[in-house]
Amino acid sequence: MASADELTFHEFEEATNLLAETPHAATTSRSDQLTPQGHVAVAVGSGGSYGAEDEVEEESDKAALLQEKQQQQQQPGFWTFSYYQSFFDVDTSQVLDRIKGSLLPRPGHNFVRHHLRNRPDLYGPFWICATLAFVLAVTGNLTLVLAQRRDPSIHYSPQFHKVTVAGISIYCYAWLVPLALWGFLWWRKGVQERMGPYTFLETVCVYGYSLFVFIPMVVLWLIPVPWLQWLFGVLALGLSAAGLVFTLWPVVREDTRLVAMALLSVVVLLHALLAMGCKLYFFQSLPPENVVPSPQITSLPSNIALSPPLPQSTAPS
Q1: Separation of alpha carbons 128 and 137, rounded Å
Q2: What pTM, to 2 d.p., does this model score?
Q3: Residue 188's domain spans which residues?
Q4: Does 37 map to a domain?
């Protein structure tokens, strides 16, 4: 039986002959041939602890299993509650930050990039619209109550239908206008080069938070001074419309100048119509109640002679 030194010598001699025949070939030892590619051979100690090879294989198995689970997991359908639950996954600090961003618009400060950060929500827009509709109906009734106290001739009865009108108007505006805007921007997407349009959820979120400034405006409309009410309305409209224009400008500026100016003008005009409609409908003054005028006796001029009374004929008894 050959010794270990003789075996080593024969291996070295075979490798030398092979290298002489093919000088560009690489040599591998027998231990390298026994080691699988991509693994590190580490000796196992006498204590039975696992080596690095077992740890690498275990981690790769876990990663493969996790990836398989993620592939098997299906997205919930839009008709399920879990689908809409992610849209309300937002904390109070994020909502307050987005409200602050809508109240303080600045040129070059994009509301979607700086506040939404690819995580739009429906929690803030939903409750902002609900609060605005409720405040509109309540302050509209309070305005009539205060007017009746100043002028008793004004007849007032509770107008509960204003809650329904306010809710339908605000929610339709906060959903239908963003839907139309989003559809138009997607239609004009072929003209743009640098930046695509926002998603529908981002557009709804921008419009929802832009309505928050109308809530304190409606409360301030309780002051019975007409010119002051219109001043508050113009200030609130300016802040809200400026936030929309600064947010939409990075998207529409790649389009033609005519289309960009026309689109922004329509956005501001619709916002102004919403504010004016709230002012004229919910804060209109009631006419005085119908009072029957008392009969007045008019004196005739003295130069007009009164005709003598006709004689009354008496029938014989």
Answers
A1: 14
A2: 0.65
A3: 93-283
A4: no
Give the integer Cα–Cα distance in Å for 274 and 137.
Answer: 15
How many beta carbons lie within 10 A of that of residue 144, not counting itself? Answer: 20
Residue with tokens 């709804």: 204
Q: Are the C-beta atoms of residues 247 and 169 closer than 8 Å to each other?
A: no
Nearest alpha-carbon partner for 132 in 142, 124, 144, 122: 124
Q: How far is CA 166 from CA 240, 258, 296, in A?
A: 19, 34, 46
Instruction: Please give the pLDDT value at position 71.
Output: 47
Q: How far apart are the C-alpha atoms of 62 and 146, rounded to whole Å? A: 71
Q: What is the pLDDT of residue 301?
A: 54
Identify the pLDDT of residue 87: 75
Say what the pLDDT of residue 45 is.
45
How many domains, the chain? 1
Query: For residue 144, what pLDDT is reported?
Result: 85
- Asked if the structure places residue 253 within a domain, the reply is yes
Mean pLDDT for each 10-residue chunk of the chain (317 residues)?
55 62 52 45 44 56 57 58 76 91 87 85 93 94 85 79 93 95 84 66 94 95 90 95 92 87 95 94 65 46 54 49
> Is there a domain that residue 312 lies in?
no
Q: Indicate whether 169 belongs to any domain.
A: yes
Q: How many CB atoms lie within 10 A of CB 105?
A: 20
Question: Closest Cα partner for 207 from 167, 234, 182, 244?
Answer: 244
Residue-level pLDDT at 198: 86
